[in-house]
Every structure is written in structure tokens, then in C-alpha cells.
């Protein structure tokens, strides 16, 4: 699905549902896609960190890529995460995603643990290999998980010199300042400056020039209006909505992580199980109870979607 215009708004990450025994729940994945479309998302990102991509086999990744794109069937653009330390593997993943109709790929810089990563020239060449192999946009994910420092001058170089590198998800500390500096440095070469981190810094990032956010799939129908109101000049309405959503955003970001969306989706009948693969552990009943209470207070769609 080729993009007809730059993506803005909210592009949430789809969780990967498993049965209680850890097997991939393919029907659950289809229901996740349907629920997210009903939530009014602008695109869906699959196989990201919040999709437990690091716990999936290569065969499972390929199967989920094909299943998600076939089931979405052009209803919304699909972004496929292709991150890998190996330049060759990342490039092949990108080509495979494009061949199945992905609208965009997202990738982190190459890293292995917090101490094994290439020099800036190697990072540039890694992205260049993917850029030269496909014709769809690439989103650079700048996240603390990698441990890789991506200075503004390197990100701007990627945007200026690699045609397809035009989207950036900035979710490092002080993301707003980095977004503002990147937009100033690369200007029209950036089609989509986005933030992440479950939108916990969204207002500051919108102030800095972000045009959208990549959250979890837990309640995008209530976060998207923040972006749309802000971009339409209704900043007071955006701030009011952000204040309303912030307790749940903060609890997800600081206490639950990727488990939050699965817990809510299971409670609402979207998926059968909130299982996370070992060595990840389920959240405590105390944390889950507070999560569901905050979600019920906002009457989020996912809690009643499957009932």
C-alpha cells in the first residue's frame, strides 16, 4: 500500500498475541488488527519492541508479516519493523515487507546489547543498504533501548542523503529538544517527525514540531484527538485531552510496559490471553488492578470491543 500523502496522527504498535502455552495466536492477531482499525488509527506498526519482536522466530516474523498485511487488506497502512544487527538481514526483511505491500518499514540502528554497535559510518551504511533496496519510506527509531547514540547531525545526514529515510520516531530523553533540532537541521527532508514512549511527552513533542505519535494499541482513539486538535490550532482542547489521558499513559509507561495493552485487550475480549513469552513475566495483580481501573475510568474501546 503506497502512501498518497505523509502519515500524521497516531501509528500504534500492534501487540503479538499468544496462547497461554506461548504459541502465536493467528486469529488473535487478526482481531488485534480489526480492533485497531476500529480505534481509528492512521496506520499500524507490527513486529516492534512492544510486539515482542525479540521473542519471535524468523518463521513467525514472516508469517505475522504476511498475515497482518493480508488481513488489513489496505484498510490502513502497515508499518513493518525490520530491526536487526546484521545489515544483510535487515535489508532482506525490508525487501520482504515491501513485496507484501508494507507502506513503510521502521528500524533501529544496529546494536547488540548496550556495548556492541558500529561507528557512525557503519550506522549510515546500514541504513543506506536498506534505503537502496526498497522504494517505500523508512522510519528511524531513536530509542534508549539500543544504547546507541544517534546525534542530530547523523540523523540529519540520513534524512538529507537517503531518499527514503523521511520518518523519525524520537523517544530518547529530552525528545522535544532533539525533535526541534532535527527539524531545523533537515527541514523538508523530514516528512514525519514522531514521538513514542506511549505519548508520555506528547505535548512537549508537539510543541517541538512532531506531527504524530507511535503509542501502544491500548487506547489510540483517545490519544489521536490530542494530535489532531493541536495540529488544527485547538491547543487548549489538546492540553485538556492530554491531561485526561495522562494517568493511564503514565501507568502504562512507568509500571506496565508492553504488558499493558495485552492485559487490556484480554480483559476486553480482543485476544484470548495476555501471555508474554519467557523470560518476560506477567505484571503483578496490584499493577494490573490499577491499570484496568484507569482504563475503565476512560471507558476505552478495547475494554468493550470483544464483548
UniProtKB/TrEMBL annotation:
GO terms for molecular function: 4-hydroxy-tetrahydrodipicolinate synthase activity. Belongs to the DapA family. This is Dihydrodipicolinate synthase family protein. It comes from the Bacteria. Pyruvate binds at residue 214. Keywords: Lyase. One of its GO terms (cellular component) is cytosol. InterPro entries: Aldolase_TIM, DapA-like.
Amino acid at each position: 500500500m503506497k502512501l498518497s500523502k505523509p502519515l500524521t496522527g497516531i501509528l500504534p504498535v500492534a501487540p503479538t498475541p499468544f496462547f497461554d502455552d506461548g504459541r502465536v495466536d493467528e486469529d488473535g492477531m487478526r482481531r488485534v488488527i480489526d480492533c485497531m482499525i476500529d480505534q481509528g488509527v492512521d496506520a499500524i506498526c507490527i513486529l516492534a519492541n512492544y510486539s515482542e519482536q525479540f521473542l519471535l522466530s524468523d518463521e513467525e516474523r514472516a508469517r505475522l508479516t504476511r498475515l497482518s498485511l493480508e488481513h488489513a487488506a489496505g484498510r490502513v497502512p502497515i508499518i513493518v519493523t525490520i530491526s536487526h544487527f546484521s545489515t544483510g538481514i535487515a535489508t532482506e526483511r525490508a525487501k520482504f515487507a515491501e513485496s507484501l505491500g508494507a507502506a513503510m518499514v521502521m528500524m533501529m540502528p544496529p546494536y547488540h546489547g548496550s556495548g556492541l554497535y558500529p561507528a557512525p559510518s557503519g550506522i549510515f551504511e546500514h541504513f543506506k543498504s536498506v534505503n537502496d533496496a526498497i522504494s517505500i519510506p523508512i522510519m528511524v527509531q531513536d530509542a534508549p533501548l539500543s544504547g546507541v547514540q544517534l546525534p542530530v547531525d547523523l540523523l540529519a545526514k540520513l534524512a538529507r542523503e537517503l531518499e527514503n529515510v523521511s520518518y523519525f520516531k524520537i523517544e530518547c530523553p529530552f525528545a522535544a529538544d532533539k525533535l526541534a533540532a532535527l527539524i531545523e537541521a533537515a527541514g523538508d527532508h523530514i516528512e514525519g517527525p514522531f514521538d513514542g514512549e506511549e505519548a508520555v511527552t506528547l505535548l512537549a513533542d508537539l510543541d517541538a514540531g512532531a506531527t504524530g505519535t507511535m503509542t501502544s494499541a491500548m487506547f489510540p482513539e483517545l490519544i489521536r484527538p490530542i494530535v489532531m486538535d493541536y495540529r488544527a490550532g485547538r491547543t487548549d482542547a489538546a492540553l485538556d485531552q492530554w491531561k485526561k489521558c495522562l494517568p493511564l499513559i503514565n501507568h502504562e509507561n512507568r509500571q506496565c510496559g508492553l504488558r499493558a495493552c495485552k492485559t487490556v485487550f484480554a480483559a476486553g475480549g480482543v485476544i484470548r490471553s495476555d501471555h508474554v513469552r519467557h523470560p518476560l513475566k506477567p505484571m503483578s495483580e496490584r499493577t494490573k488492578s490499577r491499570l484496568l481501573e484507569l482504563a475503565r475510568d476512560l471507558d476505552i474501546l478495547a475494554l468493550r470491543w470483544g464483548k
